[in-house]
Structures are given as C-alpha cells and as structure tokens.
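Appendix B. Raw example, untouched.
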Amino acid sequence: MNMRIQIIAIAGSLLIAGFIFELIRKRKLLERYSLLWFGSALVMVILSIWRGLLDKAAALMGVYYAPSALFIVALGCGVVLFVHFTIVISGLSEQNKVLAQEVGLLREELACLREIVGQGASARGGAEGEA
C-alpha cells in the first residue's frame, strides 16, 4: 500500500473517531450508539497501520489492490451501522405507535370521566334547585 494512502486512511479513521468523541462530549450522540462507530474506526486504524493484515484480508476477499480492500471493509462497516440504526429506528417507531395508542385510550377514558362528573354535577345542581 502506498504510504500516502496509508496516512490518509489513518488520518481519516482518527478524524472519524475524534468527531464521534466530540459528538458524545457535546451530548449530541448517546454513548450506546457510538460504540459501533468507535469499533469501525478501530478496525480501519488497525487495517491502515498493519499492512500485512490488510494484504491478507485483501487476499481472502480476492481483491488485488489492498487499499481497495480497505474501502470494502469501510463499506461493510457502514452497512453494519445502517442496519443497526434501522433496527433502532424500527424499535422507536413501534414504541411510538404503542405510546400513541395508550394516549388515545387515556383521552377516551378522561372524556368518559368528565362526562360522568358533568352529569353528576348537573344532577346535584338540579336536585339542590328543587329543594
């Protein structure tokens, strides 16, 4: 692997890790969602620094040019992140649906209770007016 590509890959990986750390520090990203990002950055740094491992990984994947294997690994990490966030969003969507249904049921119960209280008050008001 060309030294310039190696330096760019290491710098890019460290930049991503630093950016994720800064998002956590500013509380714009929860720690539980950042673990995959840090894992991906760590894999990229290891593959960027350890040339022999990247060459072996490229040979296993059948890729002739080792830096291309690095991009394939990065793409794979991105796909894993997309699937993870899709799972998280699906769970949140389901929780949102259940929450909306519960709010609807509570509103209906509240309307029924108000109606019962209103009927009781008017019945008492009518009875007091007659007495």
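End of appendix B.
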